[in-house]
Design brief:
Layout: H1 2-36, H2 45-55, H3 63-68, H4 75-94, H5 101-109, H6 115-128, H7 130-136, H8 146-165, H9 169-182, H10 186-198, H11 205-209, E1 214-222, H12 234-237, E2 238-240, E3 244-246, E4 251-253, E5 255-258, E6 266-267, H13 268-271, E7 278-288, E8 292-299, E9 303-308, E10 311-316, E11 328-335, E12 338-348, E13 360-366, H14 377-382, E14 390-392
Antiparallel strand pairs: 1-5, 1-7, 2-14, 3-4, 6-13, 7-12, 8-11, 8-13, 9-10, 9-12
Length: about 400
């Protein structure tokens, strides 16, 4: 009888624990749903704020669930989720508790998880098991998360510097080159390229970043009083590299323009002329060996529009607000197998201020991490005999 009572008591305790765990999980899921439901104009903000406070009090065992919730969360919700994760971790460690290390490791190494959440999980690992976190770094050199990839590149840069200080030039060159293979952020690329140059190795930066350096350009067309941005000039209807158009100052024709700039800068003001109140069009072919999705990243201080294979992908009417690498990221560009036509419209205004004289652009093709995707030169050669003078670019 006593034995039966013990078995029954144990079952009740276990069932109670399971019920409590299940209730806690349901509560966490409900809180996560509330946080992720906040609107972009603040709808549901009060409820989300309360949910975040409650979420910050759940058990540390729920951390993997919260990290998974980053999927589909907008930037505001992601910030709230991060705050909850940090609060839970701080509280648990302050009380002498533990974090779910094995689950955090599994979350970090699963590349399909949201990059920002993976980075956060990695930071938690660094706090509780630095050795384990460090063991994951070498495999991050080609990671789809730029933030985690940065860790691997940083370690290799440090290792290369050590070899360089020891006088091992060959070893340093090898390690710097390996670091460069994973580097996608400009500051790290520069930290690698400079010592490589000193060691006698020149880096093809336009190729590393995927800049387009060979263009055909035509213009100027009118943009006085900023009419050109909305105007539909002939190149937007079709690109015929043999055609002549009526431009702002007379007839204009397509002409080749190239750049040897390390960062693919096409400087219209220097290479042609700084036509004030004007519009120019530049076109380039990109050859792909398959159907693929890419990003086209643009830097320019001028107003612009971008078409790919005749479809308008993005436009920005803004003048002289600065320029930087990857200033604009046009995402989810679908390239077709073979030739893909890129058309870029750039507008200069009539400002006379010294800081408003730049008339330039840089464009590169890459994946979501910033790793270059290069045009297939072999495919370009094989298609050379096919007609190239005309490309239909219907405005859509």
């Amino acid at each position: 009888m006593q034995h039966k009572f013990r078995v029954l008591f144990s079952f009740v305790v276990l069932a109670g624990a399971m019920t409590t765990t299940g209730f806690a999980a349901e509560k966490t899921e409900a809180l996560l749903k509330t946080i992720k439901s906040v609107g972009d104009r603040g709808q549901g903000n009060l409820a989300a704020t309360r949910a975040q406070r409650a979420l910050s009090k759940v058990d540390a065992a729920e951390l993997p669930t919260i990290l998974q919730a980053f999927k589909g969360a907008d930037p505001l919700a992601s910030n709230w989720l991060r705050g909850a994760v940090e609060s839970i971790a701080d509280r648990e460690l302050k009380q002498g508790g533990k974090l779910p290390v094995s689950e955090l490791v599994a979350f970090v190494v699963e590349r399909k998880n949201v990059p920002r959440a993976r980075r956060l999980a990695f930071e938690l690992l660094q706090r509780v098991d630095g050795k384990k976190a460090e063991s994951l770094v070498p495999a991050m050199l080609d990671d789809p998360s730029p933030e985690l990839r940065r860790e691997a590149v940083s370690r290799l840069i440090d290792a290369a510097k050590g070899l360089e200080d020891e006088g091992n030039k060959e070893g340093a060159t090898t390690v710097y080159s390996k670091a460069l293979s994973g580097a996608v952020e400009d500051d790290q690329v520069k930290a690698i390229v400079a010592p490589l140059k000193k060691l006698g190795t020149k880096v093809d930066l336009p190729r590393h970043f995927g800049f387009l350096t060979q263009w055909s350009i035509v213009g100027p067309f009118d943009n006085r009083d900023r009419v050109g941005f909305a105007a539909v000039y002939p190149p937007e209807k079709s690109v015929d590299l043999k055609a002549s158009y009526k431009g702002q100052l007379g007839d204009v024709k397509w002409a080749p323009i190239s750049t040897g700039d390390d960062y693919g800068l096409v400087d219209i003001a220097k290479k042609i002329k700084n036509y004030k109140g004007s519009t120019m069009y530049a076109t380039a072919d990109f050859f792909s060996d398959r159907k693929q999705t890419v990003e086209i990243r643009i830097g320019t201080p001028n107003s612009w529009k971008l078409w790919v294979n005749g479809k308008l992908k993005f436009a920005r009417e803004e003048y002289h607000r600065g320029m930087k690498l990857d200033q604009y990221k046009v995402q989810a560009i679908e390239l077709e197998p073979g030739r893909n036509a890129i058309l870029f419209k750039i507008c200069q205004n009539e400002q006379t201020d010294s800081w408003a004289q730049r008339y330039q652009f840089q464009i590169r093709v890459c994946d979501t991490t910033g790793t270059a995707i290069l045009s297939d030169d072999k495919l370009r050669t094989s298609l050379r005999e096919q007609p190239t003078s005309k490309r239909r670019l219907a405005v859509k």
